[in-house]
Amino acid sequence: MREDRIYRVALFDSVSHVMKAEKILKEANIPYKIIPVPKHISTDCGVCVRFLPEQQETVMEALRLHVHVSEIHELLR
Amino acid sequence: MSELVDAKGLACPEPVILTKKALDAHDEVTVLVDNATALENVKRLASISGCAVDVTEGSGGIFRIDIKKGQGSRAACDASPEWTHPLGPPHALPGPTIFVIASGVMGHGNDELGALLMKAFIHTAIDLEHRPDMMIFYNTGVKLAAHDSGVADDLKALEEKGVRILVCGTCVNFFDLGGKIGAGTVSNMYDIAGALSTAGRIVKP
User: Fold this and answer.
1) Is the ipTM of this complex over 0.90?
2) B51-95 pLDDT per residue, tens
3) Interchain contact, A34 vs B119, CB within 8 Å
4) What is the pLDDT of residues B8-43, one digit of tens each?
């Protein structure tokens, strides 16, 4: 079900931005997942949005005018 | 005549377990330990159990603990050793560890934030050092088991790792989620109450 593969995560400036991004991605039917910010990226107690690398453009386009993505990281899961 | 328990050189939680066993069979127990941790744990067991405790420090760092049943604040010496030993590993407790997901949100205050936190929590569960044996979902918690919840894949992965997942059938019906459950077993109150009543630990995020 859950094979090891490369994902990417988008980090935001605040939790409310994550929520906003989640709403937008959900409405746009773009596959995403809310996960805790991986420890190797940041040790603060945050959440971020995980998505497939091939979806990055779609994700960024959907969010572009609405919420600022602060960082994008590659992630092996 | 006091029953003697020689717990010198024994590591936690052995001294506590031996003391408990001795107390089950005898009214007076004398325990010998050789370290402060064992001393504190045995003392705590005795006082929680309502026994009178008297400690004498001997030579060479050896403590003699005299325990008398029924002379402390509580009538019976019936404490189990496990919960008197907070530093023990969680799985030393008898019975399964159950994560109870009683709501779709984690914490009270802001439900939007709570929903986000709960998703992050469930995603993290698979990587925990002490993974649950079982997870039980009820009330709005059942919505997390729906296949479009965003965590159904996490729950499936947990199932593959051997975590039993029970989803309250009454709740599934109430929220009209029949046929939409993507992980876990739709279950009933008999199974849920039965499982909860055998739990060694209940974790309720």
Assistant:
1) no
2) 889 999 888 889 999 999 876 654 444 444 444 444 455 545 678
3) yes
4) 988 767 788 889 889 888 999 999 999 888 888 888
Nearest chain A residue to B159, by CA: A1
Residue A7 has pLDDT above 50, yes or no: yes
Nearest Cα neighbor of A77 from A41, A29, A45, A26 is: A41
Is B153 close to A22, i.e. CB distance below 8 A? no
CA distance B157 to chain A (A): 7
Provide CATH 3.40.1260.10 ranges for chain B: 92-203
B111 interface with A at CB cutoff 8 Å: no
Domain B3-86 has CATH 3.30.110.40: yes
**Which chain A residues are Cβ-neighbours of B120 within 8 angstroms?**
34-36, 47
A26-31: Cβ within 8 A, 24+ apart: A28/A58, A28/A62, A30/A55, A30/A58, A30/A59, A30/A62, A31/A55
CATH topology of domain B92-203: Hypothetical Protein Ychn; Chain: A, (3.40.1260)
What's the CA gap between A45 and A16, in Å, rounded?
A: 14
Residue range A21-41: average pLDDT? Answer: 91
Find chain B residues with C-beta within 8 A of A42's C-beta. Answer: none
Q: Which of B190, B127, B192, B140 is nearest to B164 (CA)?
A: B192
Q: Which residue of A has its CA nearest to B154?
A: A2
Domain A6-76 is in which class? alpha beta
pTM of this structure: 0.61
CB contact under 8 A, B153 and A2: yes
The residue with greater pLDDT, B71 or B49, is B49
Query: Rounded to whole angstroms, how far apart are CA atoms B128 and B97?
Result: 12
